[in-house]
Structures are given as C-alpha cells and as structure tokens.
Amino acid sequence: MVQRVAIVGFGAIGRVVAEHLDRGIGGLVLAAVSARDTARAKTAMAGFAKPVPVLPLARLADEADIVVECAPAAVLRDIAEPALAAGRTLVVLSCGALLDNFDLVELARRQGGRILVPTGALLGLDAVQAAAMADIERIHMITRKPPNGLDGAPYLVEHGIAVSGLAEPKRVFTGTAREAARGFPANVNVAAALALAGIGPDRTTIEIWADPGVDRNIHRIEVEADAVRLSMQIENVPSLENPKTGRLTPLSVVALLRKLGSPLAIGT
C-alpha cells in the first residue's frame, strides 16, 4: 500500500525532502506541501516532475497518511494536533518544542497516531536508546557553532549576549536540554532528541559555544552508563540557505522515510 506524505515547511529542509519524494521513495508518494510563503512554494513546486498542491495546515490530515514537520518550533501544535487527532504519523524535527508539548504523545496514543523523531544532525541515538534499557549515569553534549548560526537565539537576546565579531570561542550557555531547547529553538533540536533517547530533558546537560574558528556545526556527546561508555562527535556542514541547520538534517528525514517502506530496516 502506498502511503501519502505531506510536508509542512518548504525551506532548506522541507524542499530537500520533497525533492527526494518527487524522485521516488518506495511505498511513499508526495501528496501535498504547506508553507508560510504560499506563492514561493507554488513557484518551487512548478519545477517538480510531479507537482502537488500547496495547502493550508488544516487540510493536510485529510490528504496524507504521514505529515513531516519542517517548520518553526512555534507552530508545532498547529501542525501536530490535527494530524494526530486524525490518527496520522507525524515526523517531528522541532523536537525541542515537543518537550513542552508532551501531551501530544497522549493524543497520539488515544487516536492511534504516531510521533517519529529523526536522528537529524546527531549520531549515536541507537546506542543511547540501547544503553537506556539499563542505567545511564550521565549524558552531556557540547555544541560548537559558527557565531552566525546562533545569532538571534532567544536566550542570547534575553541575556544580552553578543556573538558577532568574536575573536575566540565563547561559551554562551550551560544547562539542561530542556532549557537549551527553550533558549535556542532553531539551533539545538539535537539536544532534545538526545534527551528523549536517553535520560530525559532535565538530566541531560548541554554546553553551547559560539566559535569563530569552526565552519561546521559540531556536536560532541559523552555518555556514562552501566552497559557502555560513549564518546562521539559529529561535524555537520551548515546549510547555505539556513546556517542554523545542517545539510545532514533533511537527509536524515529521507532515511527515516525510506526505512518506513523498506523490507529491510537497519538500526534500533
């Protein structure tokens, strides 16, 4: 059975995912997209081999079996509630916002829906999930980004922290994954994904550095557990269109979608 996919957000992430679906992913078909700039989305869609309609959010649950959220965190509920109430599968990239809207998980349970969080720009979540089946003592992540990838984050604005013109690395945040997700909603969804895979958002700790000496988004994860000690680092190339996200993020969504329709699935 072919499943219909709708994508919310048609920017640096959503457009890449849509292009892969347009080229073909087994068992799936692109059915619709939704975007804040409807005219721009329609113009971009005209270049697709199989153009699909650009629809308002309220109609997506009727047109798709899977809704992929690639939008700003502030609109997560507007996307999630109708999709989950209709029993759809929701792929969430703004998982930082999910931490403060966890009632959506109960809505999915009641209505037969499902929430999937891709690995995104991180690594090792399979290993962290496996370690969490026993006891994990500590999970800590250190994120380093070029300053322009952090500029304008609510936490920096609120605390009057400037990152432009830095001559050396500057630690701009230390705290829990929940606090990081609130303060940097466009930057560290990886922190929320790590927390959900492991010991939760209030025990997972995060450092964020603005580093003028790097040209990639770097995440280092340290895990101390009964079953394993992990130390992992990933260096993601920032998107040219949106330096707050990496090029790997949309490819992670594509990999998840391929896994849904594949007779062979690798990983936990």
Features:
five-stranded mixed sheet; Rossmann fold; alpha/beta; Dihydrodipicolinate Reductase, domain 2; 10 strands; 268 residues
Description:
With 268 residues, the protein is α/β, with parallel strands linked by helices. It folds into 2 domains: 3-121 and 248-260, NAD(P)-binding Rossmann-like Domain (Rossmann fold); 125-236, Dihydrodipicolinate Reductase, domain 2, CATH 3.30.360. It is built from 11 helices and 10 strands. It has helices spanning 14-23, 38-45, 57-63, 76-85, 95-98, 103-111, 125-131, 154-159, 177-183, 189-197, 248-260; strands spanning 3-8, 28-34, 66-69, 89-92, 114-116, 136-145, 170-176, 205-210, 217-225, 229-236. Strands 2-1-3-4-5 form a 5-stranded parallel β-sheet, with helices on both faces. α1 crosses α11 (248-260) and α9 (177-183) runs antiparallel to α10 (189-197).
Task: Explain the layout of strands and helices.
Blueprint: E1 3-8, H1 14-23, E2 28-34, H2 38-45, H3 57-63, E3 66-69, H4 76-85, E4 89-92, H5 95-98, H6 103-111, E5 114-116, H7 125-131, E6 136-145, H8 154-159, E7 170-176, H9 177-183, H10 189-197, E8 205-210, E9 217-225, E10 229-236, H11 248-260
Parallel strand pairs: 1-2, 1-3, 3-4, 4-5, 6-8
Antiparallel strand pairs: 6-9, 7-8, 9-10
In the CATH hierarchy, the third-tier topology of the largest domain is known as: Rossmann fold
- The tally of helices reads 11
What is the CATH class name of the largest domain? Answer: Alpha Beta
Helix-strand makeup class:
alpha/beta
Strand content: 15-25%
Across the major sheet, the strand order is 2-1-3-4-5
Assembly state of the chains shown = single chain
**Average pLDDT rating:** 95
Per CATH, the superfamily of the largest domain is NAD(P)-binding Rossmann-like Domain
Shape: globular
Which architecture name of the largest domain does CATH use?
A: 3-Layer(aba) Sandwich
Radius of gyration of CA atoms, rounded to a whole number: 18 Å
Low-confidence stretches: none
Major sheet summary line: 5 strands, parallel
Number of strands: 10
| Relative helix content | 25-40%
Whole-number tally of structural domains = 2
For the record, give the distance between the C-alpha atoms at the N and C termini, rounded to a whole number: 24 Å
